[in-house]
Amino acid sequence: MDIQGNMIRSTIQGFSTSYLLYTACELGIFDALYQERRHVSLLAEELAIDEDILFRFMRPLVALKYVKEEKNYFNLLPLGERLAGQAKDSLKDFLLFTGRQAMPYWSKLCEAIKMNKIPYQLVEKQPYFQAQIQQNEKFEVFHNMMSKTSEQLQLDTYFAAKKDWHCIKTIIDIGGGSGEIIVKFLEYYRNAQGVVIDLQHVQQKAEEKLALYGFDSRCTFQAGDFFHAVPRSGDLYILSRILHDWEDEAAITILRNIAESMSENSALTIIEKILPEVIEGNASHLYMTDLNIWTMCGGKERTQSQFEALFHQSGLKIKALYPLKEDDYLIEVVKKDFEYQEGIL
User: O-methyltransferase dimerisation domain: from which residue to which, for each copy (predicted)?
Assistant: First the structure.
């Protein structure tokens, strides 16, 4: 048996598995099977798909253990349930985002590298985030993915280490989207008021979500642009999964604007992934994430030393590092004139 050849061929065909799952999601297969099993003929009728093509399409989903088949009846297995929109821990929005936006950009990877361009520049006429403003469909796909990802973020290890819940009065979430992250902070900091800062087109989503969570009396939305100015008077600033969207110069601009608004007692909490300082075999998914963010918008994932360089040029420094789940870290940052405290790593 050609083990190496089979491994290479399997990796080469990985794109087809991605398209298989994405297509199943777009067709509504996982949603249709979430509550109960369906006979292939009934499923084909409900989804308006040719029965023969549907059966052939379902076979690899069965082989990959997303779906179970018995006498032409199909039902979801645990992996398939995670791709149904009804699931609490659903990855449907992430899959739709990947299929609708990331995959077309990756198809231009070779050409872009040869031309010294970012792949999305060969597909889109506008910068990535400008397109979010002017094309509602792109915004909806991106927003749904980020909203679900933020909901699933777990900050238990960070809050367990904090003892200052009564000291924080004002929390400002920079680029806070529809508020999923700041709500987690307001639940812990029970005496605090919050402000979500983001572009104007996000306001309706943010206000609806804050009302849904029951925090509309303690948190407001304020239109703003972190490249121009950041509100003062925050005891705690949040910057969640923002810096990886931007190359170094832009990231430093964002950080300097926040630093200028921070008081001596303010803290900035940054949520990002951190790459290993040296290449590690078990971190391949992080390196692919780094390539993906570059392909999408020209951003980058960073090592701790690369973050420290950004902070140094922005008048900031790391106070502590808190490992979260799914390779995320919360980086607590203060202004440079404070004494460094050993982080938790």
Answer: 11-81
Sites in the chain below the pLDDT cut of 50? 339-345
Place of tokens 């009804």: 86
Let me know the angle formed at the C-alpha of 254 by 297 and 310, rounded to the nearest 5 degrees. Answer: 90
Q: Of 184, 185, 256, nearest to 226 (Cα)? A: 256
Measured in residues, the chain has a length of: 345
pTM: 0.91
Indicate the Cα dihedral angle 96, 122, 300, 336, nearest 10°: -120
Which residues is 274 bridged to in the sheet?
302
| pLDDT value, residue 105 | 96
Pairing outcome for strands 38-39 and 73-76: antiparallel
Q: In the prediction, which pLDDT does 311 show?
A: 98
Beta bridge partners of 171: 194, 236
Q: Which of 143, 228, 244, 312 is catalytic?
A: 244
Distance CA 31, CA 260 (A): 48
CA atoms within 13 A on the CB side of 157: 15
How much is the CA Rg of the chain, to the nearest whole Å?
22
The pLDDT value recorded for residue 152 is 93
Q: How far is CA 146 from CA 92, 124, 126, 237, in A?
A: 12, 21, 20, 19
Is 143 tagged catalytic? Answer: no
Strand partners, 173: 196, 238
Best CA proximity match to 223, nearest among 213, 211, 215, 231: 231
Delineate the domains of the chain, giving CATH numbers in brackets. Answer: 3-81 (1.10.10.10), 92-147 (no CATH), 153-335 (3.40.50.150)
According to the model, what pLDDT value does residue 85 have?
A: 96
Q: Give SS3 for 237.
A: strand
Give the pair of three-digit tokens for residue 314.
Answer: 């922005």
Q: How far apart (Å, rounded) are the C-alpha atoms in residues 251 and 311?
A: 10
